[in-house]
UniProtKB/TrEMBL annotation:
Family: Belongs to the phosphofructokinase type A (PFKA) family. ATP-dependent PFK group I subfamily. Prokaryotic clade 'B1' sub-subfamily.
Cofactor: Mg(2+)
Name of the gene this protein is made from: pfkA
Protein name, entry field: ATP-dependent 6-phosphofructokinase
Pfam families the record matches: PFK (PF00365)
Length: 319
């Protein structure tokens, strides 16, 4: 392994820069030339590739987003586009590729591996929706961003004795809403894995009011529905003023937490080690608190197992 490249793909996540830094510095430490690919698979196809050195990744560990930038690429979904990407890699003399992203990015890495390119994936997504790994880079930071926001929302919600419906990201995975709901003391957590019944929700609100609750905080995962619609429904039924807050892309930004910086650093080092050992088509993950690597095909086929125990805890603590 003489030359490797690194790219970020899909949605950005806090900690991606820490992972890039780890990949670059581990490669240089091992005497390997390392190159950066700008704008994900789109930049790969277009040859947006440049040499990186230790200075290239100085003072980035604390920065959110990705210095390599990211973009969607329809062309890469075609066979012709992927063959072009392989040709570009060979023109630049690149022997291995590290892909930082989510399941869509990993699917691309898998296809390149099938075409003879040594690839390894690092999970970078705030959604935490990759079943093979306990945590993905960016989830912890996004979670703390949500907690900070709902702490502030609760203050004004309590002052006005209103219901606050806060919509968070996560696609079809409710982890951000579930973890933030427990950590932020939400009265109700609504997630795709469980859904909700509007009558049952409103009954809970009425019961809380009878017990003297001054406000209600509802955490809503985006995969269930919209916060504006839910807030309107709840207000019509309960007669209690209800406001919707959609946190949106604020959850993707910000300086990564200590946990995400550590996770990204460990995973970046592990990814380069996998390539040095001559293995391809692998993904880095965390299991039982330890960094592991798995076959990319097997990892992508693992069904996501919902944490019923954690959901039950959220119900108990919100009573």
């Amino acid at each position: 392994m003489k030359t490797i490249a690194v790219l970020t793909s899909g949605g950005d996540a806090p900690g991606m820069n820490a992972a890039i830094r780890a990949v670059v510095r581990m490669a240089i430490f091992k005497g390997i030339r390392v190159m950066g690919v700008q704008r994900g698979y789109s930049g790969l196809i277009n040859g947006e590739i440049f040499d990186m050195d230790r200075h290239s990744v100085s003072d980035i560990i604390h920065r959110g987003g990705t210095i390599l930038r990211t973009a969607r690429c329809e062309e890469f979904k075609t066979e012709a586009g992927r063959k072009k990407a392989v040709n570009v890699l060979r023109v630049f003399g690149i022997d291995g590729l590290v892909v930082i992203g989510g399941d869509g990015s990993f699917a691309g890495a898998q296809l390149l591996s099938d075409l003879g390119i040594a690839t390894v994936g690092i999970p970078g997504t705030i959604d935490n929706d990759l079943p093979y790994s306990e945590y993905s880079i960016g989830f912890d930071t996004a979670l703390n961003t949500v907690l900070d926001a709902i702490n502030k929302i609760r203050d004004t919600s309590s002052s006005h004795e209103r219901i606050s419906v806060v919509e968070v990201m996560g696609r079809n995975c409710g982890d951000i809403a579930l973890y933030a709901g427990i950590g932020g003391g939400a009265e109700e957590v609504i997630i795709p894995e469980k859904g909700y019944e509007i009558d049952s929700l409103c009954k809970t609100i009425f019961e809380g009011k009878l017990r003297g609750k001054m406000h209600n905080l509802i955490l809503l995962a985006e995969g269930v529905g919209g916060a504006n619609e839910l807030a309107k429904q709840v207000e019509e039924i309960t007669g209690i003023e209800s406001r919707a807050t959609i946190l949106g892309h604020i959850q993707r930004g910000g300086s990564p937490s200590a946990f995400d910086r550590m996770l990204a650093s460990k995973m970046g080092v592990a990814a380069v080690q996998v390539l040095i050992e001559g293995r391809s088509g692998r993904v880095i993950g965390m299991k039982n608190g330890k960094i592991v690597d798995e076959d990319i095909n097997e990892a992508l086929e693992i069904p996501r197992k919902f944490n019923e125990e954690l959901y039950e805890i959220s119900k108990i603590l919100s009573y």
